[in-house]
Amino acid sequence: MSSRELLRAGSRIPIQDKPLQILRLLLEADGQVVTREQVRAALWPEDTFVDFEHGVNTAVKKLRQALEDSAENPQYIETLPRIGYRFLLPVEWTAGGGAPWTHGNVVVMATPEEAKPHPTPVRLRPQPRKKLFIAIAAVAAVGIAALFYLSQERHRDGVRELLHRAGIGSATRARAELSRRRLTANSSDTPLTSGAISPDGKYLAFTDSTGFYLRLVDSSETHRVPLPEGFDPAVENWFPDSVHLVVSWIKDPETSAPSLWVISMMGGTPRKLVEHGSWARVSPDGNQVAFEKGPWDDEEIWLVDANGNGARKIIDGGADLFGTVAWAPEGNRIAYTRYSAENAVGKIETFDLKTGQTSTILSNAGLGREIVWTNAGRLIYSRQEEAPNQSDANLWSLQVDTQTGRPLTSPARVTNDREGIQSFSVTGDGRQISILRASEQMDVYLTDVEAHGNRLSHPRRFTLDDWQDFMPSWTPDSRAVLFGSARDGPAHIFKQYIDQKQPELLVGGEREVFQPQPTPEGSNVLYVDGPYVVGPSDKVRVMRIPLSGGSSQLVLERAGLQTYQCAKLPVTKCVYSRIDSEYSRFFAFDPLSGTDTELLAARSKKEVGMNIWSLSPDGKYLVTSKSQNPYDGPVLRLLSLFDGGVRDLPVATGVKLIMGIDWAADGRSIWVGGYMGRGSWGTRSGIINMDLNGHVTELIKGYSPVILGGVPSPDGRHLALRANTQSSNIWLLENF
User: Fold this and answer.
1) In the predicted model, is pLDDT for residue 134 greater than 70?
2) CA distances from 36 to 20, 43, 53, 111, 195 (A)
3) What is the pLDDT of residue 648?
4) Distance CA 188, CA 728 (A)
5) Measured in Å, how far apart are the chain's first and last C-alpha atoms?
6) What is the separation of C-alpha 445 from the centre of its chain, rounded to a whole number of angstroms?
7) Where is pLDDT greater, at 121 or 704?
8) Is the pLDDT of residue 164 over 70?
9) Rounded to the nearest 5 degrees, what angle is found at the Cα of 143, between the Cα atoms of 138 and 144?
10) 570 preceded by cis ω (within 30°)?
């Protein structure tokens, strides 16, 4: 330590100062976690203006190179996504090496899950009705704001200097060809959670898991925006003055709805705009704000004056969902994307604010939720690519008459890039667009059930590729996992043994197939052949193929069939769910002959939202989520398939928005996965086990990956976890 040298077998290994400082922090932590914030504080003074996230990532990468370590299979340094790092091996301090350096920033952390950095809420919306749980609240921040102002004046002066510097010597650039450059370079440990470019094109406001930042677009100079303690908002939209922003804030992650606030980049106390609202967009003159409300925060469109007065609902979508609002240049009309509750098709509509008349511009199954309207009358929207590139999305545009709301041109492609699009924003002159691109990775993780179901081992990633792998189930002998994967275009079904690293193809072809599940006797596998998102009139086929491979056979074909499950021997039946215009209906069917019979005791009024249920191993009960409204509170509903008896089990702790339900292998408890809350620390998810008396054991809780459910192996010794990870960054298109 005293000579600041790293040696291997007596030979000196070249290492730069900052990677060596990180190594020192990790060694002194004695196997405990060192957070990214602690690394930042140790390596850079508080008034240093650099890209800290990129700097930390680079320094850790160089340290791993010096140690010949791997991030994927670490021997020395373990990464805890969004939290920090831990040294894996025991450390021995020898007398000849000198005493260890001490550093006051290193603290002992009980568990990674208890670490709470200071991120802002993640705004993930991969597709309608799969929106992440948003539970956002509002409180006044008047008392703490005054004290905070005094303690943060130095940071505020830095922001003022940055703002002033950006306005000096600025010149209008000559029109050139469309160019593209990256504005942020965050790792998957700290994906961007929101962001928008200012109307004058000088600043980028963005958030990630460490805070709220303002960056000069023409340089890498970045400042953390000073905000009252505990107020950790997400970027919504700029006001035309390029100084004020509408932001949304999460206070209580479990019980409250989104609230909207106005902040200034020059500092000051945040001002509440509305108590309940999200997806806010400011009018061109800055006098009004359009926003959305509803059970899922996007079923209604509202307007409010910029001072927070006169909030009024202008459009009620009923069961439909809305994308964000775009204002026409004159402010007389708005445009938005609308998604039908019955299918995945979206359409772009315009709404005349004076007459209330609507007109449809276009419809498409792959429309994204974001939309902007430039001052030149160009409407810009995003659209998902066709298979096999369905994970990618790109921008399109068309000219629209701002007075009538009708299209004047055909849609034209703007970009041809990779990854999905989470959001985008445009400058006032319409020549620059910032795009928040995100890639979501769906994987299967495995964990072992220990201590009679009271403990789970640390989850390990089972599907080690970068393809989308989803909907796992088990072979009857518990030795292999079946799952769907879109690795060669359409989704196909694969089988992978738990001691192997590569899967083998079970069902291929040119059609989309998924939801593999063994039949009760175990010699065959059922799967679905049909659309992923199903409406009441969409026909879906259930197919059967030998587990050992061979030809597929049709079991049955029904309209509106959503999902199915099979009981375990000695019971030989399976059950599928089906929706129509009014009811959710359940049918028992024979997996060999395909004959089916409706289970009238299970018929219920159709719920708007996710269709999540599980069949007990003995085939006697269904368990489902009582309500699909995230603010109702999580309740499991047990339904007898014989007499229609119902019993509700409130989920007293753990999961707040249920995303996955699976009976335990012995039928004595239920595995529940989903979101455990959102707040200034980001999104937390996990797994609980609930017995039939309502007792809950919380077993997995964390920030990454997002855990959506766990499927138990038939022998009860393992869980196959449905899990997602995400990376995201902002890119800039210029001379648009």
Assistant:
1) no
2) 15, 11, 8, 15, 21
3) 92
4) 7
5) 53
6) 17
7) 704
8) no
9) 85
10) yes
